[in-house]
Amino acid sequence: MTPRFRAAAARALLCVLAAGGTLPGSAGAAQPSPYPEDPVRAAVEQFLERQTAGLPGKASIQVVPPSGGRAPDCPLPEPFLPPGASPWGRVSVGVRCAGERPWTRYVQARVSVVADYYVARRNLMPGEAIDAADMEVRQGDLASLPRAVVTDPAQVSGAVAANRIAMGSPMRMDLLKKAIAVRQGQNVTVLVEGDSFQLSSEGKVMAEAAVGNNVQVRLKNGQVVNALVRNGDTVVLQQ
Fold first, then answer.
1. CA-to-CA distance for 225 and 221, rounded, in angstroms?
2. pLDDT, tens digit, for every residue of 137-172?
3. pTM for this entry
4. Which helix (H) or strand (E) holds 57?
5. Cβ 235 vs Cβ 202: under 8 Å
6. What is the number of structural domains in the chain?
7. Fewer beta carbons below 10 Å: N end or C end of the chain?
8. In a domain, 213, yes or no
9. Are residues 205 and 219 in the same domain?
């Protein structure tokens, strides 16, 4: 290689490096992640995965990097949800760390849960009995829907509309109530059940109640007892 050729090659190499290029066959330097692995963030992700494991549909979790930087090192971070907090939507997860210098921080996260839910197929009026034929399925993010939205047709079994529900509106458990099974003054069979026996008597219901609810019943001898409504004409004495 002549001196003139070597000088030209050196100038070309300097131009490549000055432009931020790399030599052929060599890899650029690896850039460090702006959010290196954080044990607290990892603990929050795992915690939310457990919290959403029993929900219908598919959950997607995104933990927001804390604006104040990483939390102090903690060998065993303990995530928790504040009382009454929902595990989906915009979530603020608390993290405790015990030790010589205990601390508590809150980490923000966004949890989406895409699942089937149900809307009213027609206008429903108060007192109307509800069944699966009155609903149709949709799919969406539960985080953007009312918290009490119906996700399983079995949830409305034996229910009636407590309020007017417009066609196309999400079916919500707080807009439904159980159908009345027994009414005040109604005569019913009162059962007393044990491990190997069953006794029956008659009584009069003192208030209206739905299946599965407790109600007071006056027996023939005048005694008032608490009983569980089994169906429209039978109650079971609570012992």
1. 11
2. 999 998 899 889 999 999 988 899 999 999 999 999
3. 0.61
4. none
5. no
6. 3
7. N
8. yes
9. yes
